[in-house]
Amino acid sequence: MPTEQEYAIGELADLVGVTPRTIRYYVSIGLLPAPEQAGPKTRYTEGHLKRLHLIRRLQRQHLPLGEIGERIARLDDEAVEAALDADVAPRPADSALDYINRIQGGPPPALTERQEVTPAPLRAETRSLAEPSPPRHKQPPLDTRTRWERVPLSESVELHIREPLGKRKHQQIERLIRLGRELLEEGD
User: Among 91, 109, 167, 184, which is least packed by CB within 10 angstroms?
Assistant: First the structure.
């Protein structure tokens, strides 16, 4: 009977593309099972490697660690391997309402759920690697002060808005506040 491959934490981290610290964190929160032996001779198994690959795949689908933990908590090594072998397509982007309903207690979709996903169109623009990246948003100069407004949307959700805003942006924010409050009241 062949022996199962074992890995030191650094080897495992390199194979998956994470840091050893990330692996230790996943063990501490129960996302990964603890290795059999602790200390400097700690070894991780193929089961750990496959589970890490599945975690990384689910993270690429933009799932939070809590939801990933719920999805893989009851999976044994064979089920993890089956999920990796399956063609697990990412879910199409949820609407904000779908996302909020899901995190407020809706059942998580099955791990092997298959759905048609339309790929995003390729961007026509190209940029040389030597060119600096354009700024994502304007930051106020460090020598100026900014004022933030805190807007409660429900008992546990609030929106933070940096002022000043232009007239159009102010109208958009007012609409966002109204829609956000309506959306959160529906969940009650």
Answer: 167
